[in-house]
Structure formats: structure tokens, C-alpha cells
Amino acid sequence: MTSQEPEPSAQSFQDKLSLAVLLALLRPLYFQYRYRLLLGFLALLTVDFLQLTIPLYLKQTVDILKNGTATSQELLRTGGFLLLTAAGILVLRFTWQVLIIGFSRRMEAHLRARLFAHILTMDRFFFDQHPPGDIMAHASNDLAAVQMAGGMGMVAAVDALVISGAALVLMIYISPFLTLMAVLPLPLLGLSAWFLSDRLHTRFDQVQHSFGLITEFARNSMVSIRLIKGYTRERQQVRAFGELGEKYVAANLKVAVVQGLLFPVAILVGNLGMLLILYYGGKLVIKEAITLGDFVAFVHYLYMLIWPMMAVGWVTNIAQRGFTSLARINRLLTARSRLENSLQVSEQEGVGDKEFAGRFCSDPVISLRELNFSYPNHHKAGVSALTGIELQLRPGILGIAGRTGSGKSTLCRLLTRQYPVSEGMLFFADQDVNSLAPALIREQISYVSQNPILFSSTVAENISLAVPDASQKEIEAVAGLAAIHTEILAMENGYQTRIGERGLRLSGGQKQRLAIARALLADRPVLIIDDALSALDVETEQQVFAGIRARAAGKIVLIVSHRLKLLSGTDQVLLLDQGKVVALEHHEHLLLHNDFYQVMAEKQQGRGR
What is the pTM (predicted TM-score) of this model? Predict the structure, then answer.
């Protein structure tokens, strides 16, 4: 066993854990569709019962033919019974497929909805570790494997168990000795299935991981298609995609090796049993220990037993794929946001959601008290991104500046609760953020990041994201404040123009202004603009800034920027360096007394700003 393969006991525990998780997740669904499932399994069991009666008809027919007592009426009656049995099997098989396989599809949809809802609750750490392609692989390949295991896999397992058990009982009734001969090769099948299933579990996990890498690479390539073409990197991308494809094929071939052993072993075991029956059963017929009809019926029951033997390999394959995928999905579902906080804390202190929101809206105050922060799981893990930040934010416009990597964006991310902070360091309205739900904090903030995110929908829908019931007049008003109203009207369909994936049809400046219009329409107590005016010319920047100031009354407004023209219009400027506050003064004071600020001014004046 290689070092990459799990110990059987560890895998068995993981399988049981995954199954327990699945049952807990699907309990409401099972309860809702319990009668449909019950009817489906009754239909399945009835089909198995009808199939078991066919060899009895054949036994009776062969015996009366051999004895010379057969009549046309008896043969017609037997044929009629067989015809009715076949018709019943047809109807009932259709019934259980609709009911049971239909449930497995509902199960897949239920799990997908749970997975999607859970992912939306996760923090930035989670998405740093799970890129979109990996999540998409879980929501497609993994869920399909679980659906297959919960549908046809479960049906085949139940079918094989019932058929094999009943067939064995009837075979023992006909001849215990022949039954013993038939089951002699079975231990070989059990050992093979046990030995190979562990390896199938590990190798299929590698297949799913490779699929996630391919999906993420393809997604990145499509999103960055203009950049790839701009730098003529098409051949390199095709080569890299081909290499990932080769690894995916190699992983699938490893799975195929295991599958290629499971099925032939199952068939070999079944044929060995048949060989023994033909020899010993033939001798018993010659000695008249059993009738010819008994022998024919026994052979048919053995064929029914061979199907479960063959199904062992198939069911094992499906089950292992399902368990592997379920374990992968379980890892996502059991992941917990580091920002999760119990609202019981705030309730015990007598602070409810509405009370907090009302208090903060009427008097927005944010306090940072010796705030320290380091990025975990980072290439600079342990290095402080922010150190000893002591700051109180009140209504007004605060500019934030500093060298690259000084902590400007980190500060914005902490305020918007993208990462956790220690207790006693960050307060909203004198309430520790760790006693408030992250969503409650975010409801107080409009945030525009360095790279604004837009959706492949209309201009109006993108602006009204936070206020979906906003009127056209309100949307146009904030677009005017963001200095983009005229440009929107010039588009082919105005505010109903679809802007493409991630705003593909817009310029960088148009994307930023649409995002700012969206933030202004939200009209929340805090507005954070993280270097989201960088793609604008100075004149347009000043128009947008004037629109922001028109909506800034009674609000905390933070604007990260390197442009002194913009910073000069703020009430104060916060300078950061290496994660520390080095100055909090007016623009004019910094021009006279701060070396870094003076260097910024000289360089920008030299560029004609």
C-alpha cells in the first residue's frame, strides 16, 4: 500500500461519517418523499419476486415435457403466466425507476442548494483555499457521483441483495450440495472487492482533484481572455491546459485499472460457479437425484446469482465514487467561517440587531483599539499586516494613503469583516464586532474594491444590486453623481444594456463608476472606496468626488487613493507605513511636515498632476 492510500480503517470511518452526514442532510427530504420511496422499493421488490417465479414455470414445463404429460392447454397457460409476469415486470420496473431515480435527482438538487447556501456564508479564508474551479467541480462531478450512488447504486445494491438471498434459498431447496458448489468461488470475489475498493477510493479522489484544477484553469482563461490575447499567450495556455488534461487522463486510467479488475473478477467467479454446476448438476440429473426441470431452474437461479456477483464490482465502484465525492462535499459543508459568531452574546448584553442598526445609523462611530492583524496561511504568515492601529472614525471624509503594502486594503477588509480580528480591537458603536453577526456589520457598509465586481446583467440591475426595488429615477440620480449617466444613455439600450461577464463591454473607469453608483444607491452609514477611482482622469475623478461629498452628510467615508488632488478634498488624511499609523492630519499640514507626502506631491507635480 502506497503512502498516499488511506488505511482501510481510516477509510471505513470516513465512509461511515460521510454516510451519517448524508442521512442528516437528507432527513427532511426523506420525510417529505417517504411514501414515494416506499412505493418505489415495493415495486422493486415485486419485480424481484416476479423474476424468481420464472424459473419455477420453466421447471414445471420441462418436467411435464420430459414425462410426456404436457398438453397444449398447459403450455398455453404457462406461456400466458410468463407473458403476464413480463408485463408486470415492465410496468413495475418503470414505476421504481421514476420514483427512486426521481428521488435521487431531488437529492442531488437538495444537496446542491445546501452547498450553494453554505458557500455563501463562508469568509475570505475559505475562498483563498478553494478557488471557484474547485467549488464548481464539487457542485458538478461530485454531486453527480453522489446522485448515482444514491440512485442506481442503491437500487442495484438492494436488488442484488434480495435476488441473491432469495435465489440462494431456492437453490438450497432444490439441492444443498449444488448450492455449496455454486458458492465456493464467492470468497475470491469478497477478497478482491475489499482489496480493490480502498484503492478505488483514493484514486477517484485524485480524479476529482484533477477535474477541479482543469475547471479552475478553464474559468481563469475565459475570464482573462483579453489579457491572454493581448500578450499572445494562446499557445502557452493551450499547452498548460493539455498538461492538466494529461494528468486528468492519467488519474482516470488509474481508476480504470481498478475497475478493469473488479468486473472481470466478478465474471470469473460467476463462471467458475457455473462450471461446477454444469459438471456436478449434470451428474445428479443422470443419477436422477434431481429432475431435469430442477436442473434448468437451478441454472436459472445461478444466473440470477451471477448478476449480484457482477453487480458487486459495479456497486462497489459506484459506492466508492459516491463516498469519495460525499467526503469531499462534506469537507465543504463542515467548513466553518472564522467570522461565525453567536448572536446570543449580543442578546445577553441587551443589544438586538434592530437596536444596534438604529444606534449606529443615528451616530456612526467605529473604534480601532490597538488593532493588530496578520494573514494566516500566507507566504508571509506571522508578519503583521497591521500593528497597533489606534483610531476613531466619525462622520466625515477620511483619505487613506501610503506605500504599496502599507496595509490600506487590509484595513478596509477588516472593517468590512472579510477577516476575523481579536476581541477588544474593533468596535462599531462601542459594540465589539465579535459579538455581532458579520452580515449585520456589512449591512452598515457600502464597499467599492480596487477591482469592482460586476455581473453579466443590465446596467440598471448592477447599480440596484443592494436596492433591487429602486426606481429608475433613483438609479439615474446616483449614476449622475458617479458621472456616468450620460455615458449610459449613449449605450445601445441605455440602462437596459447588458454589460457582459464581469463588465466585459465596459472600460476600467466605467466599471469603477458603476460600482460607486451602486454604493451610493445603497446609502449606508459607512462608505469605503478602496482605490476605486484610479482608472479615472483628474476631471472625472473630481466630478465623482463631488457626487460622493453630496451624499456624505452624516456618514463615515473612507477613500484610499494615491492622488493628492483627491486627498486634498478630504477632511483628513491617514498615512500608513508598514502597517502602522504614521500621521493623521489635514492635507496642508502633511504637505508642510511629512517627507513621504512631500515626495508624493513632487512626483505627481512632475507628471503634470
Answer: 0.67
